Amino acid sequence: MAFFLETLFGGLMTGMLYSLVALGFVLIFKASGVFNFAQGAMVLVAALAMARFSEWIPVWLGIESKFLANLLAFAVCAVFMWLIAVCIERFALRYLVNQEGTTLLMATIGISYFMDGMGQIIFGSSVYSIDVGMPKEPAFILDSMFQGGILISLEDLTAAVVAAALVAALAFFFQYTSTGRALRAVADDHQAAQSIGIPLNRIWVVVWTVAGLVALVAGIIWGSKYGVQFTLSTAALRALPVVILGGLTSVPGAIIGGLIIGVGEKLSEVYLGPFVGGGIEIWFAYVLALVFLLFRPQGLFGEKIIDRV
Fold it and tell me: Count of domains in the chain?
């Protein structure tokens, strides 16, 4: 039982990391109705920026406190992601208003390749590390119930708490603020939103900035855990089944989908892997996503799209 709970907790923590990346997909889709292939590149660039600025700022300003240096680096990275959002709107999206979804999709693919190259030019192509003080040591819990206790990662637990707080804040933002309601209106119909006075350019800057901040948090956590390298942009591929499972229009769905897939990967690998030679963890999420595409394409919490002709 203790081993099962360890596997379960490990899957939940991994699922939270997937959910952080998936949130960026959901945010962009809710505001523009297009799947954002640039989200993986945003996570990479945000992580690179955090890794490099946390190195440069103590040298530039002569700061000895690591906490203060990381705090300033985070603030600089947040401004940097806002500048990226402004540039994306100014040089790409404003010329694609009311275009077909395929056109916007291709634009995000182009933005992804551009950001990959830009990140390498500005920050370099080496492997970097991020140290924001997240606990690395494991901990044992429930030792009074199980002999030896249950081993959990405090780093994963911290990441899960941060992700849960971020999801709660975003859910509140979309449901109870005027800007959040405007974002949903823009996603439904660009022309109708403009006709009632919603400034489309400002809304797109806001949502890409929020997605950039989510990518920054995800990049810090992934970079702290695994290091910052250019393969980090492929983390977005692990989040694709999450958004399919949870629904492209649901912020809570991203977190629930991530938890389901994280737990499913770990349990299937541990308990079914020995019977099939292992490797289930690699393809489990994609098979589950395929099943949902066949029988419930809108996902668990996504809105069912009805076209009237």
Answer: 1
